[in-house]
Every structure is written in structure tokens, then in C-alpha cells.
Amino acid sequence: MWSKEQIPAEATVFMRIHRTWMRGGEVMIGAFQDREGGMSVDWNEYSTAEQTRLRARRPAENGVVGMIVGATRSIEGLLVEHDPIQENTLDAQGRPVSPNRAHTEILGAKTEERRVKLSRIYSWEIRLA
Q1: How far is 111 from 33, CA to CA, in rounded Å?
Q2: What 3-state class would DSSP assign to 41?
Q3: Are 29 and 22 in contact (CB under 8 A)?
Q4: Cα four-point dihedral sign 13, 19, 24, 28
Q5: pLDDT-derived band of residue 46, with 50, 70 and 90 as boundaries?
Q6: 88-117 burial string, b = 16+ CB within 10 Å, else e?
């Protein structure tokens, strides 16, 4: 069992971006949304951008962006919390979820203002062609 850890401000979190959330080579602000309580990302302490990409149902359809944790936390109302997925975890529909020590949540309502701010702090780690 993995315990929750404090993520340092200088760390990076990786987020998959499906091609449907891209326009003109940039991420649409709608990509920054919660699913099942928070916005799921992976902490670079325990994952690479490629490993994050490979967790997608269709990896070839996903790019990966990185966000510096301190910059993310500087957006008022957002928290970045390490939330590792343990063995034998089920999703909201009761389906098994693969364990993931890197799993982290960006918590807080994703208002339009916050989404715009998130769209200003990401950098591409794996860009789709």
C-alpha cells in the first residue's frame, strides 16, 4: 500500500490530452475538467510522460502536457494532492482500476477562469503530430 505524500512545488504533474481537446496545436480549455471528483494527473516522481500516455485507452490518440505543481497551486481555489490508486480499487461504475502510485488529483471547481489559467501554464511533453 502506498501512502499519500506531499508533492513539492517544483515537481511536475502529467496530464493526458485526447486529440478531441486540441485545436490548432493547442489545448482547448475544456480539457481541464474533473472526472469522478478531481482532475486526474500523474506525479513525475513515479511516472514518465510516456507512462502517463500509455495509461490511456487509446494511447496513440493522446498527447501529454506537464504542469509545474507550484504554478498550479498558485491558481486560487486549486489544490494538488497525491492520491495513489491502490490494488483492488474500483471506479464509480464498479470496474477495476489499475494501481498507479503516481496518481494525483487537482481539486477545486474548474471554473472558466481557472481553466484559462491552467491553459496558460502547461507545456507539451508529448505532442500529437
Answers
A1: 9
A2: strand
A3: no
A4: negative
A5: very high
A6: eeeeeeeeeeeebebbbbbbbebeeebbeb
Q: If DSSP codes are grouped into helix, strand and coil, which group holds residue 49?
A: helix
| pLDDT tens digits, one per residue of 81-101 | 999 999 999 988 899 989 999
Rounded Cα distance, 47 and 73, in Å:
20
42, 13 contact by CB (below 8 A): yes
Q: Cell for 99?
A: 494501481
Q: What's the rounded Cα separation, in Å, for the pair 73 and 54? A: 26
Q: Residue 66 has which C-alpha cell?
A: 506537464
Neighbours of 76 (CB within 10 A): 9
Nearest residue to 67 (alpha-carbon basis) of 24, 35, 20, 114: 114
Asked if 18 and 111 count as a contact pair (C-beta separation under 8 A), the reply is no
CA distance 62 to 17: 5
Please give the helix or strand (H or E) that residue 16 lies within, else none: strand 12-18
